[in-house]
Model the fold of this input.
Amino acid sequence: MTLPDCPALTRRAALAGAGALVVSFSLARSAFAQDQVQPPQNIGREPKSPAPLPGSLKVDPNLDAWIRIGSDDSITLFTGKAELGQGIKTALLQIAAEQLDVDMGRITLVTADTARTVNEGFTAGSHSMQDSGTAILHASAQVREMLLQLASARFAVAAQDLKAQDGKVVAPDGQSVRYGELVVGSELHIPATPNSRLKPLDQRRIMGKPVRRVDIPNKVAGGPAYVQDLRLPGMVHGRVVRPPSPGAKLEAVDAGAVERMPGVLKVARDGDWLAVIAEKEWQAVTAMRALAAATRWSQPTALPEKTRIFETLAGLKADTTTINQKQAPPAAAVHTIEAEYRRNYQLHGSIGPSCAVAQMQDGALTLWTHAQGMFPLRKAVAEMLSLPEDKVRCIHVEGSGCYGHNGADDAAADAALLARAMPGRPVRIQYMREDEHRFEPYGPVMTSRGAVALDGSGRIVDWRYEVRSNTHSTRPPGAGQLLSAQMLEKAFQPGPPQPLPQPEGGGDRNAIPLYDFPSQSIVHHFVPEMPLRVSAMRGLGAYHNVFAIESLMDEAAAAAREDPVAFRLKHLKDARGRDVVQKAAEAFGWSANATRESGRGRGFAFARYKNLGAYAAVAMEVSVDRETGGVRLLRAVAAVDSGEAVNPDGIRNQIEGGIIQSASWSLYEEVQYEPRRILSRDWSTYPILRFPALPRRVEVHIIDRPGQPFLGTGEATQGPAAAAIGNAIADAVGVRCRELPMTAARIKGLIGG
Amino acid sequence: MVELKVNGAVRQVDAAPETPLLYVLREDLQLNGAKFGCGLGQCGACTVAIDGAPAFSCLLPVGLLAGREITTVEGLGSPDKPGPLQQAFIDEQAAQCGYCIAGMVMRAHTLLARNPSPTDDEILEHMSPNLCRCGAHMRIVAAIRRASSRKEASRSQRGAL
Done:
């Protein structure tokens, strides 16, 4: 595949280049109509003093290279975000093409690369449209204005009488000039002005349209599309030998026979980190297996008892914070509901195990990786290798779908260690399935307790909710966050786990209900000690919290003898929230007194992701087999409000996928382990949804809000889909499953008999 | 040396006979389509057609494949000139990350070759060995339906089985 670093156009070169049109930002807070009060990208801590700048500029106010127009008419767009399969490339191109008045095909997009793009932190938390999309929207609009000004001077025609059109500026008399011609000889380095003249909504022809994704043709026809497809000259293949259980120590290895195997170039060991490098990939796999058989490991009892995991979590020391409190004079409660909700460990399970390619040349490392944060990864790898940061370059290349902090960073670290062991040669590593399953950081085990009080009119008068969880981010930049760095002779220790702060939150993400209760108390018990290694998984704590809150809402509605949808609306003032609830209910055909066949049920759930992102409501119909407890999905209907919809089909794809994925998590998925082993090592020991389990229909309704800020969408339905399924099960068979996943065995246990 | 017939062309490959086909396709023949997913025949990312039947290329030693017709997703078309089934996947935008998609296309190809008009249940059953993690399943089924002779039903039934 074409190397993403050729030709060697760096950000610095782009800035210095004559004839380049570069926009930099120095905007006041009020600059962006699209802006809204949002904390920065989830980098794990808050900035010391929040910068009064919009979008990604909150994280790094020194952004100055979003767009470049060459004298040859080439247009290059830079984003610090990465394509994870969510379609971000296409959406960003749509925005730029719209505002610059060019075809999308004319723009080259450069994604996250420490040598070429801005540092937009991690591509995570459904932030890409809000952060990068917003910045690109305004940068592109201002470049167009600048081009009009340049043409105005050239033609001696007022700018407002000129028109930008298909890469040219056209005057009323018909004469025109190409963008490339306009920038020739201009040494333009212009800061953006506070106000952007965005293209009027009624003139838009690319934004808001279901444009086909630019990356799909290669993916359906075997074109190069992934880091897995990189083939560099002289490239060799590495594999690591992972211990039989986390934390095991390598006591002995007899590598002699392996070193003599065909194609084997090197066996590399550093402390408990053991790897092999071979000329060809299958040779590396074969050698890795032989090497694994020639090792002896200590066998620590390091893992928890799965049957006691919730007691274990309850017994660990916690830092307790009340994250939200609202008090009202005590009201007379006639019903009180108390319940505990649980979530087991779950894994990301990308279909392609993590992969990376690295090359060490003249003391500098280049790393091609599908990790989510190039700059944090660079810092971690530089620390691990004792290299200055400017000697490490991290380039994002797509991998298999991501869904959070999986093995990608660890594989990048392994590639870096392998490249150090074999200087000059590019080394590729792809994990084996069991490496990914057993050693990726899991989605954390969680519990929460709710106590809901209702008055005689069926209104919630007091809401108490306490959630208990580990951290939801153990990402770089610390070298100690990289699995292999923890195994080296000179081992790096992971930093102390930190909670992610509100308002986005980690374990407490979406723990504060969006409903209006007169009195409420929301408490986060942050548990630093991790029985199993965990980190960010799509939705973070929102998956569990929305499941718990929306289940509790149904329990409360049942106590009040009210329809679940009407009961939600009765407690929800947020107008856009009400709109998605009503839209989903209407499209589903929800009616308060519908009769159902025996064993069939319907469920409803709603949330606004992080209480800051997209609004989503999901209605679900299921049937439950009383004999087995097995759940069959029948149909799902969702309504979503993502603010201005740049690519409605991209939103639809994310929501459909989110519902299906959440259904798989919520019905089937939990990591299996015993004190000495992770038992979930493949798809037979960690089954996920297969085709025959699909619902018969998944319907997505988008409430478009042209001109409104983009709202992150990618994680919006993880929680609502789970809760809608749980509520539908309760409706079908009258039992409430309060533990994720809601397996057939658990449901059968609740039904009894 | 092993002789393989891949996408209609005879190829000589310098690989040990026990090497799984997947590694030969990807490394020796530089074909990107078939993907490594599990190496265990559990996920279908490596699916190719052997004499018209779906097969897990991660499990098949090349030494057993002399004289067999091997078809990979590259044999159905190219990014610039996609074949009809690939075009149906594009038309339905039936991918998110897309890592599973080449395997999906190949498994679907073997279904449509022997049953041009499968029912939805036949599609679901046939596709069962292949996993998608992004949740693009509904679109994948819609794409297969669109490429089948039931295509008249596909547009109006997007998102439905």
In short: The first strand of chain B starts at residue 2 and ends at 6. The domain at 84-154 of chain B is CATH 1.10.150.120 (DNA polymerase; domain 1).
